[in-house]
UniProtKB/TrEMBL annotation:
The lineage of its organism: Bacteria, Bacillati, Bacillota, Bacilli, Lactobacillales. Belongs to the ATPase gamma chain family. GO terms for biological process: proton motive force-driven plasma membrane ATP synthesis. One of its GO terms (cellular component) is proton-transporting ATP synthase complex. It comes from Candidatus Gallilactobacillus intestinavium. Produces ATP from ADP in the presence of a proton gradient across the membrane. The gamma chain is believed to be important in regulating ATPase activity and the flow of protons through the CF(0) complex. This is ATP synthase gamma chain. It is a peripheral membrane protein.
Length: 305
C-alpha cells in the first residue's frame, strides 16, 4: 500500500478514536445536565417564594433602613444601605474548573471585563473568582483578587455554597467592599446561555424590582412583625442572599453542562465529517492506485506482444 494511503488510513483511525472520546464526553455532560435540571426544578419554587417575600417587604417599605435599624453600624444596615465612604466593589466571577465547554468561560470573563472597563475606576474592583478558569485569568492581571474557590461540585449542594456565601458576606460585613455584584452564565435552554451581571448587595428597590412578577397585587403599606423587625431581618436577609447565590451557582453549573454537551456534540459532528472526507480521499487514492496498476499491467502485456 502506498505511503499516502497509509497516512490517510492512520488519520481515519485516529479521528474515529477522537470521535468516540467526544461522543462519550457528550453523553457524560448530557447526563450531568439532566441531573442538575432535576435538582434545580424543585429549588426554583423555593427561590421564587423567598423573592416574593422580599418583594412584598420592599413594597411595604420595610427594607428602608430607618424601619430596620436605628444603628448604622448594625450588620443589617449594611445589607440595605450602601457605604458611601467605601467605593470598593466586589465582583464574583463564576467560571468552570475545566475546559472543553466551548465559549462558556470566555463569554463570562469578557462580560466581567467589560463591566469593569465601563466603570470610572478599574482599581476599585475586587475580584472573587469561583472556578479555575477565572482564577488563572485574573492571577495574570493587575486586579485585586480577594477570594478564590475551586472544585464546586457538578451538582452543588446547599451546604457547600453556604460556606462560600458565608466567607463572601463576611468580607462585605468587614467593609472589604460596599457593593457586591456577580457575573455568570444564565441557562436559557440546552443550546442557549446568556451572560449576566447582577447586584447582590446592598439589597435595594433597584436590584429587587424585577424579582416578582405579580406587580398587579396590591400590598398593604405596613406589616406587623413579631418579635421585631431586627430579629426577622437578621434571619431573612442572610437566607435571601444565600438562596440567591445558591440559585445563581446552580444556574451557572447548568449552563456549564449544557455548553460542554453542545461543544462535545459539535466536536463529534466535525470528527464524523472529517472521517467522511478522509474516507472519500482514501477511496479515490485507492481507486487511482488500482487504475495505475491495471494500466501498467496492460501496458506490459502489450509490450510483450
Amino acid at each position: 500500500m502506498p505511503a499516502s494511503l497509509n497516512e490517510v488510513k492512520r488519520r481515519i483511525s485516529s479521528t474515529k478514536k477522537t470521535a468516540q472520546i467526544t461522543t462519550a464526553m457528550q453523553m457524560v455532560s448530557t447526563s450531568k445536565l439532566s441531573r442538575i435540571q432535576q435538582h434545580t426544578g424543585g429549588y426554583q419554587d423555593y427561590i421564587s417564594k423567598i423573592k416574593l417575600v422580599m418583594g412584598h417587604l420592599l413594597k411595604s417599605h420595610l427594607l428602608n433602613k430607618n424601619n430596620v435599624v436605628n444603628n448604622d453600624t448594625n450588620k443589617i444596615s449594611k445589607w440595605v444601605k450602601e457605604d458611601n465612604d467605601n467605593k470598593k466593589i466586589g465582583l464574583i466571577v463564576i467560571t468552570s474548573d475545566r475546559g472543553l465547554v466551548g465559549s462558556y468561560n470566555s463569554n463570562v470573563i469578557k462580560l466581567a471585563n467589560d463591566f469593569i472597563k465601563d466603570s470610572d475606576d478599574e482599581s476599585k474592583f475586587s475580584i472573587l473568582a469561583l472556578g479555575n478558569n477565572a482564577i488563572e485569568f485574573y492571577n495574570n492581571r493587575d486586579l485585586d483578587i480577594s477570594y478564590t474557590y475551586r472544585g464546586i461540585n457538578d451538582t452543588p449542594n446547599f451546604s457547600e455554597v453556604k460556606s462560600i456565601v458565608k466567607n463572601i458576606t463576611k468580607m462585605y460585613d468587614d467593609g472589604k467592599f460596599s457593593k457586591l455584584y456577580v457575573c455568570y452564565s444564565h441557562f436559557v435552554n440546552r443550546l442557549t446561555s446568556k451572560c449576566k451581571v447582577e447586584q447582590i448587595l446592598p439589597i435595594s428597590e433597584k436590584n429587587l424590582k424585577d424579582m416578582s412578577n405579580d406587580d398587579d397585587v396590591s400590598y398593604l403599606p405596613e406589616y406587623d412583625i413579631e418579635p421585631s423587625p431586627e430579629v426577622v431581618f437578621a434571619n431573612l436577609l442572610p437566607q435571601y442572599v444565600e438562596s440567591l447565590l445558591y440559585g445563581i451557582i446552580l444556574d451557572s453549573k447548568t449552563s456549564e453542562h449544557a455548553s460542554s454537551s453542545t461543544a462535545m456534540k459539535t466536536a463529534s459532528d466535525n470528527a464524523n465529517d472529517l472521517i467522511d472526507s478522509l474516507n472519500l480521499q482514501y477511496n479515490r487514492a485507492r481507486q487511482s492506485a488500482i487504475t495505475t496498476e491495471i494500466t501498467e499491467i496492460t501496458g506490459g502485456q502489450a509490450a510483450l506482444e
